[in-house]
Every structure is written in structure tokens, then in C-alpha cells.
Design a protein that fits this description.
It is an enzyme of class 2 (transferase). The chain is α/β, with parallel strands linked by helices. Helices cover 43% and strands 16% of the residues. The chain has a 7-stranded mixed sheet with strand order 4-10-9-8-7-5-6, sandwiched between helices. The protein is globular and about 65 Å long. The structure holds pyridoxal-5'-phosphate.
Length: 447
């Protein structure tokens, strides 16, 4: 072990890690990044098909973002938005966000992260219904296997079994319905009927709890950390219909989907949904600095603005000026470099075509893709879709083989997922898929 890896092993606890395992091997040391590649301390070049944690959309060496941070650091490195103050980057970014987010969303509440967005959402939803004199509307409906962050509130909204088990106490008045995971739960059935059935669980839950007690429904348009679960086309229109019918706020957690991931600025545009609240983080700064924000639809904003009491909520780093300056530069880069039109016309269709080739591999039971987010399901038997025994940890094995092949893919059980930087080129897509095939071959050879 190098001395730095040793310092790390001796002194640093890592998120979502098994410490026994981590300390026996030491962590992988990533030293620098360039374009869509990262480099470890041995100088190995690795194609980062996960964009860090779904965030480095403009890659690792976007000079305008670095310049924006430097300039802002020099003029005002910190100030806050508390007690009726603001600063230029927050004001300018708020206006830009109103332009690029879906129509009818013109106000933002800044946070420092995705988890803080979801904490904000819980407070805001309750504050909204109280202000409307409907304080019984308290329960928030979410989904199993959803990821909404790692604060206590984020994890409570989320539907990750292990997180719920370890935390024990969770925020009250949150319930979960099933996810629309067709590969696991609808193998031979009718996909669109399955999508409708899963959406209609929302209606059943509302009827069970009573419309007067339900405040909101929260979901990721495409579940990310749960394994890139792309819903059937029938799912979202039905969810929208139900939220409208029962006067339930719709919250889109677009922390992953936002800022181009699905081929539009927001997945709410892709799926034609009209959220009341929309959570953003990750891609908002391409991950260069921590920042999040909750967009608020006009009708909700009007109620919040008319409530004559203080909204008792906020974070020291809500709308940090340097992070806001980077977000402004990030949006302007996306606009001036035509990132989204280029995705739609060339990158996303090519990626879908190449990714689908992985279906020919003997280990792959499904290859699915939307925009620049994709998954493959590793199976033992392509026809029956039978999985390998869980104890073999095939996903983990494949992840290690990816690294050996110069590729970051993430494993969620035996589902391998990618979310490459939006600046990926056609040639780099070829390389990504080539390395993925190599990793699958290595995995098959060792099974
Ligand atoms: C990552 C993520 C979060 C949490 O964001 P943090 O910045 O890690 O707090 C919330 N929601 C979704 C959908 C995410 O993917």
C-alpha cells in the first residue's frame, strides 16, 4: 500500500462501504481526471461511465467551470441567503433555472445537496397544506427501492431496505408502494398493463389512506441507484392522472435525471409530467461543487408567498455563491455547446444502438437504455432469465473486471449500470461498449 492509501485505511470511513472488506484491500486512489477519464495512482486510465456519482456531465476538465469558481472565490467566496439577503450568483442562477426547468416552475429553494432537497420537500409540502388550511394532508407516498438521499429524511422517503433496517427510526407519515421494475416483476406479462398496474397502486394507497390525509407522491422519473429502472410508457401518464384527480402534489426527484441525462433538460419533459416540486443536484454543477435546489410550481409558490409566517428552514450553504457561479457556467456551457440537441440528434441514438449490442452476450438477459443512462441484467440463463446464485456476487465480480478493463460501471446486485458524461463522443461510446464486453467475457470465464 502507498502511504496515502495507508492513511486512508487507518483514518477514513467511507460512505456505503463494508469496512472489513475495505481495510483488507485499501481503497482505489483516484488522482486526476480529464475529459471522461479518471486516472489512478498507478497511472491507469479508466473510462468513467458513471460520471463519478451520476454528476460529472461535462467531464473532468471543463475550464469555464474552473474559471467561474476562481473568479467568484476572488470577489465573494461566501455569503448566505438568510434574513433577506442575496448575492449576484444566486439571483442570476435562480433566473436561469426558471428558464431551463419545465414551464410553470419559476422559483427555486437552494440547498447544498440532493438529500437536503428532499428534507426541504418534506417541510415545504407540510407548510403548503397547512397554509391552505388542509393540515390533515400529511402522508407522503414514495416507492420501494427508491433513492432520495442519505439524511434521515432522505432515507425515510427512499425505499432502500438496508438503510431502513440500519436506521430503525424513520420519519413518520411516509409509505411506500411497489416500483415499476419490469425485468424482475413482469417477465412474460404485458409491459404496458404492468406499468398501469404499478401506477394504480398509488390510487389504491390514496383510497386506503383517505384523500384528505395524503400530501404528495415522490418519485425519480427513472430510478437510478435502485438499478436504472426505466418505467413502461404507460406508467407516468397514469401517475399524473391520479395526482390530479386526488389533489396530491407530485414531486419529481430529478437529482440524476435533470440537466440532460434522459435527452432533454429534465425527465419531466421526457415523460411529459407536470411536477409541483422538482429536486435538482448532481448535474446542476457537473459535480464540481456541491449544490442542490428545489423548483416550485407557480401554484404552490403562490400559496407559500401568501402565507404570513416564516418558512423555518434553510442551510448555511444554501445557494453558496461559488457553487452557484459554477452552476451558471455549467448551464451556459450546455447551451453554447448545444449539448442537448447533440445528444438528441447523434449521441443518444448511437449509444442506444451500441448498448443494445450487449444483448448478444451470453451473460446478458436485458439491455435497457434511455438517453444516456443504461443498464444490463446479468443472468445465468438467457431464456428463462434465471439469475446466478446470490452468494456468487456476480455483479461485484463484473465491477472488478470492468476496472481491470479500464471502465467504471456500477453494480446493483447483478444489474450493471452506466450514466456516462454527456460530452462522450461516438468513438468513446465504441470504447465504452468494447470494454464492457471485455469485462463480461472475463466475468464469464471466471464463473
Ligand atoms: C444522489 C441522489 C440523491 C441524494 O443526493 P446527495 O447530493 O447525495 O445528498 C437524492 N435523490 C436522487 C434521485 C439521487 O440520485
Amino acid at each position: 500500500m502507498s502511504s496515502l492509501v495507508e492513511y486512508d485505511a487507518n483514518h477514513c470511513f467511507h460512505p456505503f462501504s463494508n469496512y472489513q472488506e475495505l481495510n483488507s484491500q485499501g481503497a482505489r486512489m483516484i488522482e486526476r481526471g480529464e475529459g471522461i477519464y479518471i486516472y489512478d495512482d498507478a497511472g491507469n486510465e479508466i473510462l468513467d461511465a458513471m460520471s463519478g456519482l451520476w454528476c460529472t456531465n461535462l467531464g473532468y476538465s471543463c475550464q469555464p467551470l474552473i474559471d467561474a469558481a476562481t473568479t467568484q472565490m476572488q470577489s465573494l467566496p461566501y455569503y448566505n441567503l438568510f434574513f433577506q439577503t442575496t448575492h449576484p450568483p444566486a439571483a442570476e442562477l435562480a433566473k436561469l433555472l426558471a428558464e431551463v426547468t419545465p414551464d410553470g416552475m419559476n422559483h427555486v429553494f437552494f440547498t447544498g445537496s440532493g438529500s437536503e432537497c428532499n428534507d426541504t420537500v418534506i417541510r415545504m409540502v407540510r407548510y403548503y397544506w397547512n397554509a391552505k388550511g388542509q393540515s390533515s394532508k400529511k402522508t407522503i407516498i414514495s416507492r420501494k427501492n427508491a433513492y432520495h438521499g442519505s439524511t434521515i429524511a432522505g432515507a425515510s422517503l427512499g425505499g432502500m431496505g438496508l438503510m431502513h433496517k440500519q436506521t430503525g427510526c424513520v420519519v413518520p407519515d411516509i409509505v411506500h408502494i411497489d416500483q415499476p421494475y419490469a425485468f424482475e416483476e413482469c417477465l412474460d406479462g404485458d409491459l404496458q398493463a404492468f406499468g398501469l398496474e404499478r401506477a394504480q397502486q398509488l390510487e389504491q394507497k390514496i383510497l386506503e389512506l383517505g384523500e384528505a390525509n395524503v400530501a404528495a407522491f415522490i418519485a425519480e422519473p427513472i430510478q437510478g441507484a435502485g438499478g436504472v429502472i426505466i418505467p413502461p410508457e404507460s406508467y407516468w401518464p397514469e401517475i399524473q392522472r391520479i395526482c390530479d384527480k386526488y389533489d396530491i402534489l407530485l414531486i419529481a426527484d430529478e437529482v440524476i435525471c435533470g440537466f440532460g441525462r434522459t435527452g432533454e433538460w429534465f425527465a419531466s419533459d421526457t415523460y411529459n409530467i407536470r411536477p409541483d416540486l422538482l429536486c435538482m443536484a448532481k448535474g446542476i454543477t457537473s459535480g464540481y461543487l456541491p449544490l442542490g435546489g428545489v423548483m416550485v410550481r407557480e401554484q404552490v409558490a403562490d400559496v407559500l408567498k401568501s402565507a404570513n409566517s416564516e418558512f423555518a428552514h434553510g442551510f448555511t450553504y444554501s445557494g453558496h455563491p461559488v457553487a452557484c457561479a459554477v452552476a451558471i457556467a455549467n448551464i451556459k456551457q450546455m447551451q453554447s455547446r448545444q449539448i442537448i440537441p447533440n445528444l438528441q440528434q447523434s449521441i443518444a441514438p448511437y449509444f442506444a444502438e451500441k448498448w443494445s449490442e450487449l444483448m448478444h452476450h451470453p451473460l446478458v438477459g436485458e439491455a435497457r437504455v434511455k438517453g444516456l443512462v443504461a443498464a444490463i441484467e446479468i443472468v445465468q440463463d438467457k431464456t428463462t432469465k434465471q439469475r446466478y446464485d446470490e452468494s456468487l456476487q456476480v455483479g461485484m465480480l463484473c465491477r472488478e473486471n470492468c476496472i481491470k478493463s479500464g471502465l467504471v460501471m456500477r453494480a446493483v446486485g447483478d444489474t450493471m449500470i452506466v450514466s456516462p458524461p454527456l460530452i462522450i463522443t461516438l468513438e468513446e461510446i465504441d470504447l465504452l461498449v468494447e470494454r464492457a464486453k471485455q469485462a463480461l467475457d472475463l466475468t464469464m470465464a471466471s464463473l
